Amino acid sequence: MARERERRGRAAERERAERQTRLITMGVVAVLAIAGLLILSGLYVTKYLPPRARVLTVEDHSYQARQIADRAVYLAFFEGSVSGIGDIAREILDHVIEEEALRRVGATTVDAVTPADIERELNLDLGLIEDDPSPTATPEATATADPSATAEGTATAEATGTAEATADPTAEATIDPQAFADALTTFLRNTGLSRAEYEAIIEARLYRQRLRDHFKAEVGSSGVQVRLQRIRVSTQLAADQTIAALEAGGDFALLADEQSVATEDGEGGEIGWTAGVLQSDDVQAAIADLEPGQWTAPITSGLFFEIYLVAEVAEDRAYETAIVTSLTRVRLDDWLATTIASLDVDEDLSADEESWINDRVLADVTSRLGG
Length: 371
Fold this sequence. Notes:
This protein has 371 residues and is an alpha+beta fold. The protein has eleven helices and nine strands.
C-alpha cells in the first residue's frame, strides 16, 4: 500500500512538472508572438505605412508621402526651389497645392495649356529642341524663309524687313523617336518621377508662366508711386525721441544717418520709389493719407520700430523693372491664395510621416552628393 502511494505521488509530481513546463512553453510562445507582432507593427508603421500614407488630398487627387518626398528631391536638384531640409515636407505640400490650383483653375484666366504645349516643353527640358532658335534678321533683310524648311529641331523664321524675325508657329521640329525615348528614360530615372508626374509639373509651370505674363500686362508700365525714407530704431524710447526731434524741426535724412539701423536703406534712410501695395499692411495704412514731407508714427516691425517719411508722390510714374516684377508677383500670389481657398484641400501629415519624408529627402540628397 505504501509503495502504491509513493508511486502515485511520483506520478503526480511528474504531471505537475509537465504542466509547469507546458505553461512556461506556452508563455514563452505567447511572449515571442507578441514581440513578433510588435516588431511587424513597428516595421509597418515606420517602413511600410509612411511611404504609402495619404498626406494630402486636393479635390479628388490624393498624394502619398513617397510622392511628396520624390517631388522634394526633384525640386531640390532640378529646380533649386527648396529653402531647407528641416521644413521640406510642409513646404512641398504647399508647392503641390499651388500646382493643383494652377492646373485646375489656370485656364479660367489664361489660355489653356494643351498636350502639344506640354510635349514642346518636355522636349525643351530634354535638350532636344532650343527655345526660340530663330535667327535675328537685319533691318535690310527682305527675303522670306521657306516655311517648309526645318533643320535639327529649329523653327523657321520669316524676315520681313524688321529688326526681329518672327518664328513660324506652324513649324515643327523633327525629333528622332528613339532619341526622345532614351533621353526621357534617363531623365525620369534621374528625377525619380513618372512621366505623368513630370508632365503635371510642366503643365503647372506653363500656367504659372502664362499667369505671370497676364498679370504683368495688367500692371502696365507706369502708375501711382511714392518715394519713401525710413528711420529704424531698436526701442520705443528711441522712436519717441526721434519723433520729438522731427517735430522740433529736425532733418529726417540727418536723423536717419545718425540713428537708423536699417543698413539696407540708402543715404538719409532712402528706400526709393515704390508702389504702396508692396509695403506691409501696417505701412500702407500709415502712409495712405500722408502728403509729401509728412512722416508716420512709429510702426512696430519685428523687434524694431520704424518711422517712414513720404518724400514724394507721383500719380503716374514709369515703373522700374524691379517694381513691375514685384507687382506681378503680388497679383499672382493673390490669385493663388483666392484659388486655393476655393478648392477642397485636406492636409493629413502626421509628425511621423513628416519625419519620414524629411529623412528620406535628406538621405537621397546626401547620396546624390556622394555623402
